[in-house]
């Protein structure tokens, strides 16, 4: 396999906690050999957030510049749901929180906020798409350099976004589509039924036909524990799932996506010396995906 191009951006999800906050996030990313990363501004299961002044942003960016790290991405928490047409309170809370999250992203220096599109919770796909578009129109009407990247979903329950056509339908209803992008999650796309394992190029061509490849702002690079089309969303370590190493390597090094961040969200694995402990897979997986050499 070919040597990685200089423009390859690859990293992983990292934590942000303790006194170091974002500085600790950068240090963790560098320890994996990454040159980009993804973080949540707080716990992904809730909307409690520290003040921006406490995030240690200046020190983090100083270390990033010293290591020629120029960008990172932020992921919104799972619990916000712009697609909820059944509960107005949850919908309004989601819009309000995401407005704050976009402000945090801009102050932290990220230009991409990844968002699960939402779930229609029984109201139907069309109602969910309408609700998501309404929320996005409200959020994107506020001037900002931050784009929202809608994540491709696996299709659990009433999730919207497991089909490329559903994301395209959201785009059609958004009044500021220039600030809308896509986060292409390989596990989710596989679990939604697209055949990444056998023909990743064909899947990417289908995406290009429906939405346009230029809309992809970030990739989540994950293998899947599930058979294609299972709609379950269970990530596997690289090369240990149903997609396999070669298709994921092909996506990471695809010439049409040079310079687009590739982010690993793979599960921690048991320490061979102490099975009661788990280890982060990211350093070895980043090395495998850089070189094309995996065990």
Run of helices and strands: EHEHEHEHEHEHHEEEHEEEH
Spatial order of strands in the largest sheet:
1-2-3-4-5-6-7-10
Rounded radius of gyration (Å): 18 Å
The total count of helices amounts to: 9
Outline, from the CA principal axes? Answer: globular
Which spans have pLDDT < 50 for at least 5 consecutive residues? 1-6
Structural class: alpha/beta
Largest sheet, in brief, is: 8 strands, parallel, barrel
Overall residue-averaged pLDDT value? 96
What percentage of residues falls in helices of 4 or more residues? 25-40%
Q: What distance lies between the first and last C-alpha atoms, to the nearest angstrom?
A: 14 Å
**Residue share in β-strands:** 15-25%
Oligomeric state of the chains present here: single chain
- Count of β-strands: 12
What does the secondary structure layout of this molecule look like, with pairings?
Layout: E1 10-13, H1 22-31, E2 36-39, H2 57-66, E3 73-75, H3 88-108, E4 112-115, H4 125-140, E5 147-151, H5 164-173, E6 180-185, H6 186-191, H7 200-210, E7 216-221, E8 223-224, E9 235-236, H8 245-252, E10 262-264, E11 269-271, E12 274-279, H9 282-291
Helix pairs in contact: 1-2, 3-4, 4-5
Commentary on this structure:
The chain is α/β, with parallel strands linked by helices and 295 residues long. It contains nine helices and twelve strands. The strands form three sheets. The protein has an eight-stranded parallel β-barrel with strand order 1-2-3-4-5-6-7-10. It has a two-stranded antiparallel ribbon with strand order 8-9. The longest helix is centred in the first third of the chain and has 21 residues, at 88-108.
